Structures are given as structure tokens and as C-alpha cells.
Amino acid sequence: MASKAFLLSLAALPLSKAETVLGVYIFSRHGDRTPKALAPTNLTSLGAEQVYTSGGWYRDQYVASDASTPIPALSRDIAALTQLTVTAPVDNVLQNSAQAFLQGLYPPAGSITTQELRNETEVTAPLGGYQYIPVNAVESAASSKSSENNPWLQGGSGCDNAVVSSNNYLSSSEYKTYYADSLDFYQSLLPVINSTFTADAANFKNAYSIYDYINVATIHNQTIPSSDLLTNETLLELKVLANVHEWGLAYNSSDEIRAIAGSTLAGQVLEALNDTITGKGKQPVHIQFGAYAVFSSFFGLAKLPSISDDFTGVVGYAASMAFELVTNASVSSGYPTTDDISVRFLFSNGSAADVTPTTYPLFGQSETTLPWTTFVSEMNKFAIGDTPDWCRVCGVTTGSCASSSSTGSSGDNASTTSKSGNGISLPVAGVIGALVTLAVVLGAEALIYVLSGLTLTKKSTLAAAQAAANGASGGSKA
């Protein structure tokens, strides 16, 4: 009897509310590709498989009918184009990676797209029901060189002050020390790389390009010249030096304009998630493909290196980070209010199918799930909110910035952003050039020049910065 009474008492307790994922913003790097030093770069079969399986993991997490945390009302098998936005620069590697990812997210649905005609013949759509999901594309550079052909991604950002800031690293004492201390190391590798890099280029200035070249070779090449030189210790040293070099160009805590990529991404994330909330979940999925420097810049701004030094390294192929909108409120009676919505951050340093995304606390907080208002407040500390704000912090006065500077409020604080009626940041419509991808194309062609990475820098400013860089590194940037 006592046992029966206990069970009845448990039945009388209110059921705990299950968590619901309302929406997600996914930012992903491309898959394995050919080396930058041998442009044009192209996505490899391995790279396509990496992002395809990563898309499959996100399908199992949010999309499939038996998903771990299914997003409400999301189409399960046939993609509803109004429910998701996908963007990538005009770049073979990034565009193709996005397409492969989407095939994992929404694979061919042959059983659904096979139709029986009146004459009783059956017709199946090409490729077994391959789903044609558009990837919004924008020009990423003024020249024919695409994002993944550019060895130094900041160079295509279009942000004068960010370019100068990154160039300042090339004249810093830290850079000079690494350059001098590693020179013999790079020179010793000439038998491996001399078909592509001259003796003058075998130095720390080209740390990432050299690492990338050798890393690709160790994955794909059956034979490598003087491969006996590539010991495990040497390969690790190459990676460490490349990480140091790229982190120095992507982020500096005392000069955060250098992280313009992360700032602009933060603005996009805020805008997209806010749209999901205000639209009551009508467009819950946002996917963007971009370069590794965006991860580094955002990691620095979000204080993730305080958790682990791993956040200062170049992320792996098909790495992804996701921002989940979650709630514990019941969604059966209506869309929850912002007071009942939180945000959780996940990161996978590789294909999500191989490296399960892990939750991490942002902004130095102790909790991994933050109230929406807290998330917005912290992101707004560094998010770039609109075109006049971007023009001002970047020091750009040409193109669309010419009109913005005459109407914008140049006296505002750099972290101030334009607000909507909900007090939410209304970020820039696109991410800067080769560093980050554009969500949508807004405005006139001049705006595209600013946001897509077409060079708008003042020649006098860049000349001074490049002169300083050449003086520090002994040559022009490769």
C-alpha cells in the first residue's frame, strides 16, 4: 500500500517542461581543399564528404522526424526554402561546401519525389531526388581571386583600420621574435617546399601558407620530396607557428578593430536570431559558410580563449559553431516570449559527424545557456550594427560610406549599434568580403563594394601600412 501511495504521489507531481530548440544559426568552415599556394583552390572529394556528413549530423540534431532536438514546424524531408537561409561568398570551395552540407541536411528524397504519371510510368527526379536548395552568393573580391585563393584573408576585408591593425602585428616585437627564431627552421624545409616557395619566402611571414601546403601534401600526396624531414615534431611546429601567425592577424585584445570579421558575424547572428523570434519561428534555420579567420576573430571577442588555448588555433576543415535558441516554456500554446528564450553556443573543431559539437560558455560567463537579453547585451558590446557604424570604425569614407559619413553619428561609441523596437541590434546585411559571408544583398552596388570585400581602402593609408609590414618582414605579403 505504501508503495502504491508513493507512485500515486509521483503521478500527481507536475511534469518537468522539456527543452525546445526554436532555431539555430550555423557558421561553418569549408571541407578539405587543395593548397592556397597552388591557386585556384578546389574542394576535394574528402572535403565534400566532411561537410556532407557534418550536415547529416545537424539533420539528426534538428531536422529529421526522429531528431534529437527537433525544431518545431520545420519541414522534415522536403526543404521548405522559406524556412532557411544559406549564404557563402562567390568562391568554389565555400559555395561547393555549402551545397554538400545541404545535401546532408536535406538528402535526396527519392521516395517522395518519384511520381506515377497517368500512363502508369514512374518518373524520379534527377540524382534520386536531389534537392535544389539555393546558396545566396555575393562577389567577395574585386579581382578574380576568391576567398580561398587569398593567403591573407584580412587583405580582402575592405576595412581600412582592420588592415592597418593587422599590419601592425607584422611590425610588433612578438612577430619579429618569431620571425628570427624560426628562420632556420623554415630554411631547413626548403627541400620539401622549394618547388613552390623560394628561399626568400621560407620564413614566418608565410607561416600559414607553408603549413597549409605541407598539410595538404601529407593528406593527399603519395610521395613528398625529402619527406624524411617531416617528422611528427616538425609537423607540430609548423602548425603551432601557423596558429600563432594567424591569431596575431585576426585578434588583439587591445585593438579589437582587428577582429572586424567576428564583430560583423556577431551582428549577423543577432539579426538572424532576432528575426526568428519576431517571426515566431517562420525562418528558424540560418547557415553561413566562411573562412577560418572569422572563427578566430569571434573567439577572441567572445572570450573563448580564457577557456582553452585551443580557441587561438586555426580551426579544422568543416569546423562549425552553432547558436541555438532554446526555451523550457511550453510551445503548444504559442510562441514563447523573449523572457522565456535563451541562447546556447556549440563548437565542433572538425566535421560535426566526427567531432560532436560541445557547448561552451561565452563572454567569460559560467553558464553555457544564457538568457536572450544577456546574450544580446554581451554581443552588442562588439557587434557591428549598421553601415554607418561599420564605415566609422573602419575609417572608410568612400563608396556608400561617403553618404553614410554625412548622415551617420560619428560621435557614437564604437560598440553602439542601431536598435529595433525590441532593443535588438540591426546588424550589417553582409559579412566583410573574404572573411565573412553576406546574409543578403542590400542596397546599391556601392554597398556591396563595402560589405563583400571589394577594396575600398585609401591608398595612402595602405601604403603606409604595407611599408611598415615590408620593413618588418623583408618583403611584400604573399
From TrEMBL:
Keyword line: Membrane, Signal, Transmembrane, Transmembrane helix
The keyword Transmembrane helix appears for this protein: yes
Region entry Disordered, spans: 399-419
InterPro entries: His_Pase_clade-2 (IPR000560), His_PPase_superfam (IPR029033), Histidine_acid_phosphatase (IPR050645)
Signal peptide: 1-18
Source domain of life: Eukaryota
Low complexity bias: start-end ranges: 399-418
Gene Ontology MF term list: phosphatase activity
Record carries keyword tRNA processing: no
Transmembrane segments annotated in the record for this chain: 428-451
PANTHER family per the UniProt record, alphabetical: ACID PHOSPHATASE-RELATED, PHOSPHOGLYCERATE MUTASE-LIKE PROTEIN
Family statement drawn from the similarity comment of this UniProt entry: Belongs to the histidine acid phosphatase family.
Protein name: Acid phosphatase
